[in-house]
Amino acid sequence: MRILLYLASTVLLASQCLGLGILGLYCYECVSTHPGCGTPFNWLWYWGEQCPEYDDKCVKIIERKGAEEVITRQCLSKLRSFRTDIPADHYEGCRPAAHDVRLGHYVNNSIKELDIHRDHYESTTWCFCYFDNRCNGASSTIPSLLAFAVSLFITWLHVS
């Protein structure tokens, strides 16, 4: 039993050291209108969710209009169903949103507030990352260091 606990804590420690999740990629999922999700980002409020696809990417979308800024953090696979402005290049880094000329083309709607053409924001920037869990948050490494310290402590308790 003691060897099994030691083995489990060693696997947990190794996965945290390598920056890999045990089951898949974890990303923060929130919108900056929620408390703690704006700038600065508070990782204590949002622990992250596991992405549904094995080759998923974490996304941070920054939408600006004048002084207003809305930041959305999510897995890419969860945004594909309703966002048509996803850039074709999904590699690590930030790039402007794609322009969809067909969006709202067949709708004859005179209500301006519905934003059928998705042109409310002046600029939309997509940031992709997939090399580390919860990489769509702030640039801090405190969550991974905290997980590493907890894993090290559990290993020490089971060995001694």
From TrEMBL:
Signal peptide: 1-19
Protein name: Protein sleepless
Pfam family, one: QVR
TM segment ranges: 141-159
Bilayer topology: Lipid-anchor; GPI-anchor
GO BP terms, alphabetized: regulation of synaptic transmission, cholinergic; sleep
Cellular component terms (Gene Ontology): side of membrane
Subcellular location: Membrane
Keyword line: Glycoprotein, GPI-anchor, Lipoprotein, Membrane, Signal, Transmembrane, Transmembrane helix
